[in-house]
Amino acid sequence: MKKIIECVPNFSEGKDIRIIKQITDEIEKIEGVKLLDVDPGAATNRTVVTFVGTPEQVIEAAFQAVKKASQVIDMRKHKGEHPRMGATDVCPLVPVAGITMEETIEYARKLAKRIGEELSIPVFCYEYAASNEERINLANIREGEYEGMPDKLKDPDWQPDFGLAEFNAQSGVTAVGARDFLVAFNANLNTTSVRRANSVAFDVRERGRVKREGNPITGKIVKDKNGKPVMIPGSLKGVKAIGWFIEEYGIAQISMNLTNIIDTPVHVAFDEVVKKANERGIRVTGSELVGLIPLKAMLDTGRYYLREQERSLGVSEKELLKIAIKSMGLNDLKPFNPKDKIIEYMIEDDNSKRLVDMNLADFADETASESPAPGGGSISAYVGSLGISLGTMVANLSSHKRGWDESWEEFSNWAEKGQKIKDELLFLVDEDTNAFNRIMEAFGLPKGSDEEKTKRNIAIQEASKYAMEIPLRVMQKSYESMEIMKAMAETGLQASVSDAGVGALCARTAVMGAFLNVKINASGVEDKSFVDDILTKGTEIEEKSQQMETDILKIVNDKITSK
Known about the structure:
- The protein is of the alpha+beta class.
- The chain contains 17 helices and 13 strands.
- It has helices at about 15-30, 55-70, 100-120, 140, 145-150, 195-205, 265-280, 295-310, 315-325, 340, 345, 360-370, 375-400, 410-445, 450-490, 495-520, 530-560, and strands at about 5, 10, 35-40, 45-55, 90-95, 125, 175-180, 185-190, 210, 230, 240-245, 250-260, 285-290.
- The strands form three sheets. Strands 1, 2, 3, 4, 5, 6 and 7 form a seven-stranded mixed β-sheet that branches. A four-stranded antiparallel β-sheet has the order 11-12-8-13. Strands 9-10 form a two-stranded antiparallel ribbon.
- A hairpin with a 4-residue loop joins strand 3 (about 35-40) and strand 4 (about 45-55).
- Helix 14 packs antiparallel against helix 15 (about 450-490) and helix 15 (about 450-490) runs antiparallel to helix 16 (about 495-520).
- The protein is flat, with a radius of gyration of 29 Å.
- The chain starts with a strand and ends with a helix.
């Protein structure tokens, strides 16, 4: 999976659009990064910017934005309602897809180090990237604000994590952190009462509600020994919530911020609100997603509701999104378009032309054209994807067969495995063509000087190796898929046993076809030990797939003839 992180820097300028644009222009210059949102606030004199992309590109864009902010914002002249301590006040990184929090922390500290060293701005790291417990909470770092930073930096306990402990009068101090993804999520209610909406919000939010003596609404507030109100915690960890009335729709909502969607996923929050609302005689009619959400969160939601129905989870990404949207009523107030709401879809290259996006006729026409790609490698991957699609179909049909309810999860697990293999093989359809294009690009490099010749030869060798590795992956995944076809031939729906057989035939064809591509690309690789290793692996996979095909077809034919 492609690694994606989000960056949400806050800049201490919310009035002068020209200054803000100079900063965001720096972000948009970086390839591989997409600017998603620019939210200036005049009263706070602060702008929150959101952009996403691959990690290296994101921290490069963040650095360039911080650098520009240090040039165009003068903190000696800044006034605003929001607490602040620097031209770039905070710059958090958020893991979105394909990346762990530990990796994100490393990128945050890498960015902080560069800001401190190259821009002479003192940098503190906060939340998950914090160097000690006191610095986890951003409020502790920001205490004293810009005006108090000269004295704070003299305190031995408040030496910056990166950069010198010398106050930068123009740029102030910056905090760089790593935090969890925050999802803004609202539940729609069949009431206009804000008081009743708040009752549900207090039931679920982590902070809960104030404890009172006697009557929970009008009773005297219970206080602790320090004179602070005692709170009754709510049921959802990492959730902030409040009730409000939305005049545009004429309904009350429960507005939630899910600060950790691992601890409390979206579907868990939605179901808990439904439960608590029902207890108070209120119905949840649907929900609203404000801003963006990672794809995984939506796919997990789809799987959750399918599991609740005891239906197979091994369905396509599109089907999982459909069930998630329907289950939470995300179309209740306005149409929910995944292309506008899911981060990974937002940063897709709309201009990219993928073979797998073509219809069947266009794909066949493109293959039949005079262009050398797509060729046998891409076709092998596609045949393999069709084979496992048949195996997955049998698993899904078996999962839903009347009278087989106790076995639904077993077949669902097979179908999930099949979907993953199918997605991998579909990726390899295009990747095989990309591998061919890399070879062509390498041959097109200049070869005038000795240095250019060396560079060109290295590029050709690396591209040729990759062109062997991709069809080997096709072989591995196609052979792996045959395990599913065999299981479906043995235990799946007998009426579809022939489909399992056809799937096995496709998988074997994919293995043998991909191996031809492995072998033809071997001729361009000078590293003979690499070639021998790949060919040995390929031969083993081919032999095992041929035996597996024989075994599966025997099962299939025995069942067909015994009918």
